[in-house]
Description:
Blueprint: H1 3-14, H2 18-27, H3 36-47, H4 51-63
Amino acid sequence: MSFQAYLDALEKKTGKTPAELLDEAAERGYDSGTKAAVIVEWLATDYGVGRGHAMAFFSVLKNGTQISDKHVGSTGAHRDESATLRVDGIANRDRTEADR
Length: 100
C-alpha cells in the first residue's frame, strides 16, 4: 500500500480529510513533539483507526507532507505518485487548480 493510500483509507474511515485531522490534532495540542502512542490511542478511541493508518498520520504530523521519493515512479505495491502527500482530501484530487 502506498503512503497516500494509507491517508486515503484514513479519510474513508474517519470521514475527515487528513488536513481536518491535522487541525483537530492541533486543537488538542498535538504537534511534531507528541509521542506516537498518544496519536495512535486518540485515533483508535475516537475513530476506530488501526495502528498502521494512525502511524501514517503520525508521520505527516511529525514530518509534514514531503516523503522520500524512493517509491515514486516505481511499479511496486508501495508506489506513490509524488513525494508530496495530498492531505486536502480525495474529492479534491480530481479538481483542477482553477476549480480550487
